[in-house]
Design goal:
Length: 103
Protein backbone atom coordinates (compact mmCIF):
# COMPACT_ATOMS: atom_id res chain seq x y z
CA UNK A 1 0.00 0.00 0.00
CA UNK A 2 1.12 3.47 -0.72
CA UNK A 3 0.69 6.48 1.56
CA UNK A 4 -2.30 7.73 -0.47
CA UNK A 5 -4.39 4.56 -0.09
CA UNK A 6 -7.22 4.74 2.40
CA UNK A 7 -8.76 1.65 3.94
CA UNK A 8 -12.53 1.90 3.71
CA UNK A 9 -14.69 0.21 6.27
CA UNK A 10 -18.33 -0.49 5.56
CA UNK A 11 -20.73 1.52 7.69
CA UNK A 12 -23.15 -0.51 9.68
CA UNK A 13 -26.63 0.93 9.76
CA UNK A 14 -28.07 0.78 13.23
CA UNK A 15 -31.83 0.90 13.47
CA UNK A 16 -33.09 2.13 16.80
CA UNK A 17 -35.28 -0.44 18.49
CA UNK A 18 -38.68 1.02 19.17
CA UNK A 19 -40.85 -0.49 21.85
CA UNK A 20 -44.48 -1.10 21.03
CA UNK A 21 -46.77 1.37 22.77
CA UNK A 22 -48.37 0.15 25.97
CA UNK A 23 -51.96 -0.96 25.47
CA UNK A 24 -54.91 0.12 27.60
CA UNK A 25 -58.31 -1.46 28.19
CA UNK A 26 -61.53 0.53 27.98
CA UNK A 27 -63.90 -0.98 30.52
CA UNK A 28 -67.68 -0.57 30.62
CA UNK A 29 -68.89 -0.40 34.23
CA UNK A 30 -72.42 -1.63 34.92
CA UNK A 31 -74.89 0.67 36.67
CA UNK A 32 -78.52 0.28 37.71
CA UNK A 33 -79.77 3.47 36.04
CA UNK A 34 -78.78 3.46 32.36
CA UNK A 35 -81.27 1.50 30.22
CA UNK A 36 -79.87 -1.35 28.15
CA UNK A 37 -80.97 0.28 24.89
CA UNK A 38 -78.99 3.44 25.70
CA UNK A 39 -75.85 1.41 26.48
CA UNK A 40 -76.12 -0.34 23.11
CA UNK A 41 -76.64 2.99 21.30
CA UNK A 42 -73.51 4.41 22.95
CA UNK A 43 -71.44 1.30 22.15
CA UNK A 44 -72.57 1.48 18.53
CA UNK A 45 -71.87 5.23 18.25
CA UNK A 46 -68.53 5.47 20.06
CA UNK A 47 -66.99 2.05 19.48
CA UNK A 48 -68.64 1.30 16.10
CA UNK A 49 -70.07 -2.01 17.27
CA UNK A 50 -72.87 -3.88 15.61
CA UNK A 51 -76.18 -4.29 17.42
CA UNK A 52 -75.36 -7.89 18.30
CA UNK A 53 -71.83 -7.17 19.56
CA UNK A 54 -73.07 -4.20 21.58
CA UNK A 55 -75.74 -6.38 23.16
CA UNK A 56 -73.20 -9.06 24.11
CA UNK A 57 -70.81 -6.51 25.65
CA UNK A 58 -73.67 -4.84 27.53
CA UNK A 59 -74.95 -8.17 28.88
CA UNK A 60 -71.46 -9.24 29.97
CA UNK A 61 -71.07 -5.98 31.92
CA UNK A 62 -74.57 -6.45 33.36
CA UNK A 63 -73.84 -9.98 34.58
CA UNK A 64 -70.23 -9.54 35.73
CA UNK A 65 -70.25 -5.87 36.80
CA UNK A 66 -67.83 -4.72 34.11
CA UNK A 67 -66.59 -5.70 30.67
CA UNK A 68 -63.60 -4.86 28.48
CA UNK A 69 -64.92 -3.04 25.43
CA UNK A 70 -61.70 -2.50 23.46
CA UNK A 71 -57.92 -2.63 23.90
CA UNK A 72 -55.89 0.10 22.20
CA UNK A 73 -53.16 2.69 22.79
CA UNK A 74 -53.58 5.07 25.72
CA UNK A 75 -54.64 8.21 23.82
CA UNK A 76 -57.36 6.43 21.89
CA UNK A 77 -58.56 4.52 24.97
CA UNK A 78 -58.90 7.68 27.03
CA UNK A 79 -60.61 9.53 24.18
CA UNK A 80 -63.13 6.73 23.58
CA UNK A 81 -63.91 6.44 27.30
CA UNK A 82 -64.47 10.20 27.55
CA UNK A 83 -66.67 10.21 24.43
CA UNK A 84 -68.81 7.43 25.88
CA UNK A 85 -69.18 9.16 29.24
CA UNK A 86 -69.98 12.51 27.61
CA UNK A 87 -72.57 10.98 25.27
CA UNK A 88 -74.30 9.23 28.17
CA UNK A 89 -74.18 12.38 30.28
CA UNK A 90 -75.71 14.34 27.39
CA UNK A 91 -78.60 11.86 27.41
CA UNK A 92 -78.95 12.23 31.19
CA UNK A 93 -77.45 8.90 32.27
CA UNK A 94 -74.50 8.11 34.58
CA UNK A 95 -72.89 5.43 32.37
CA UNK A 96 -69.21 4.99 33.21
CA UNK A 97 -66.20 3.86 31.19
CA UNK A 98 -62.75 3.50 32.75
CA UNK A 99 -59.30 2.84 31.31
CA UNK A 100 -56.48 0.77 32.75
CA UNK A 101 -53.20 -0.62 31.43
CA UNK A 102 -53.29 -4.06 29.90
CA UNK A 103 -51.04 -6.52 31.72
Amino acid sequence: MSDNDVALKPKIKVKPKLDKPKLYKVILVNDDYTPREIVIVILKAVFRMSEETGYRVMMTAHKLGSCVVVVCVRDIAETKAKEGIDLAKGMGFPLMFTTEPEE
